Amino acid sequence: MDILVLLAFLTSGKCYFCPMGQIEHEPERACVRAPNWVGDVVMATPAFRALRSGLPKAHISLVVRRRVAPVLRGAPWFDQVITYDPEGRWAPGEFVRCARALRTPRRELGLLLPNSLSSALMFRLAGVRRRVGYKRDCRSVLLTDAVPRPSEGGRFKPTYMVDYYLRLCERAGLEVAGRRMELFFSDEDAGRAQQVLRRQGVAPDESLHLLHPGAGYGPSKRWPAERFARLAGMLSSEFGAKVAVIGGPAEQAAARAIQRRSSGEVTNLIDCGIDLHLLKCVVARSGLLVTTDSGPRHYGVALGVPTVCVMGPTHPAYSTSDLPNDRVVRLDVECGPCQRKVCPLDHRCMEDISARMVFDACAEAIAAGC
Prior knowledge:
It is a single chain. The chain is built from 14 helices and 14 strands. The protein has helices at 2-10, 38-43, 45-54, 91-103, 117-125, 161-171, 187-199, 225-239, 252-261, 278-285, 295-302, 316-319, 348-351, 355-368, and strands spanning 29-33, 59-65, 80-84, 109-112, 130-134, 145-147, 151-152, 155-156, 208-212, 242-245, 266-268, 288-292, 307-310, 326-329. Strand 12, helix 11 and strand 13 form a beta-alpha-beta unit.
């Protein structure tokens, strides 16, 4: 890593911007590094829109991890998508490949939405002339605009990630074009998703309520499978809806446990051909989404679906919007919010949330029609 940092210092390029963020000359080429998590990518969509709106004639390149790239499929903001797969034995080669892809022709502006040192180093090695990112992880020397993280009383201030990313756009001199999150899919995509649902026993005119029990961040975000099972039975009985579990392969065990323990019928939509792109269509077609504080939650919020989040260790200010369809069920406990991936105690922040508490929030959301 020390050699790469030295190489970064040796790259050069004239800056076409004045120091306080006012654009002197509109860049012909810009690039943006997307966040690494599904939910963060969704919350970054207002920043992507601001970049395109502020630079309507520029060629804009997106660098995004391959596993989350489907979240942005169909988005109209990018001229080039560079997928990045940093896992495995070929990670160094992937890093160099992406830096080279950005180097010729040279990009005048780069927005770094992740807080990592590696993302700043990639743009520095690529010779991006102006690099705007947060002053974190010892990377300030690699940035031309090292933006201080929001703080209060000498401590980091929990900030809604939509606003966190938009602050970088403002620093770059871009006018913010609203805070609304957006996801895109075509009528053809919706038709493909409906075919998958039909094969799984979900009729086109059938009311659909979705459960997402997963949490890629860590087990501390999980709500017990038996609570999801109890909730599934209550939803099916009260609203007559088809209840289905969504998620990735890691949620398969939880989905089967929910099916076994529920008093109502539960459909398993895992491993049936619904990827992160088609999941947008499935969520948009649903009447309710109940989820942990994970990526699909933000699908529901962005698509206007009544969304109930069962939240435990994470601070709600990071991920909770002011939209009426974004509802949170959580408990104030003396040890939280701890932001830990694994609970060192008794997981009370999630264990003490009952199925009835979540059902009541679901009933309110459905009744409000939001």
